[in-house]
Design brief:
- The protein is an alpha+beta fold and about 210 residues long.
- Helices cover about 15% and strands about 30% of the residues.
- It is built from three helices and eleven strands.
- The protein is rod-shaped.
- The relative contact order is 0.11.
Length: about 210
Amino acid sequence: MRYLLAIVCLCALLAGGARAGTTGAIVGRVVDRTDGRPLAGARVTAASPSQTMEAVTDASGAFAFASLAPDTYVVRTLRTGYRAHDELGVTVFADQARSLVVELAPALATIAKVAARASSLVRPGTTSDVYSVNAPQAQAATGLTGSGSLNQAYAAIASVPGVVVPQGQQGWYQFVYIRGGAQDQDGWELDGIPVNRAYDNAPQTMLSG
C-alpha cells in the first residue's frame, strides 16, 4: 500500500511540473534615438483587449511586464522632452518573453510664438466687396483696356479699386489681377452662374461684346 501511495504522489508531481504556463512577458529598454543613451523615468503602457499594464523605466532604461495574458499588445512609451512612440502588433505567447528596444526621438522645442493677422487688403470679418458700374461709367472706362472699339466688361472691371487689367491685350480672354492675386484665382459669374473653365478653374469666359 505504501509503494502504491508513493507512485501516486510521484505521478502527481510529474504532472504538475509538466503543466504549461498561461502567461507571457514583455521586457525591454528605452533609449534616446540620437545617441543610444538609456532613458530613465519613461512611462510604458502595454494595452490589449485582454488587459493593460503600466511600468516606469529604471536608471538603465529597462522595463518589464510579467504575467501578461497571451494577446497582441500596443506598447506606448511617453517621456517628457520626447515624442510619444507606439510599438504596434507586439504579440505575447504563453511561456515566452518578447524583447523590445524602444528608441525615442527628441520632441521639437518651441522657441517662440508669432501671431499674424490679415493685412488691410483682407480684414477679419470682411466677406466681400461689391461694386456697381453703370452704363455711363462703363462708357467712360472704355479706354482703360483692350484694343479696338469693343464695348468691354474688362474696362468696367479695370475701373474698380484694387483691379489691374494690363493694357495691350487682344480684347478677349484678358488677364485680370485682383488685389495682387494671380489671373487664375478670379472667378466669373453671369447672372449668378459660375463660368470658369472646368478643368483648371481659369476664368476663360470672354467679357467682350
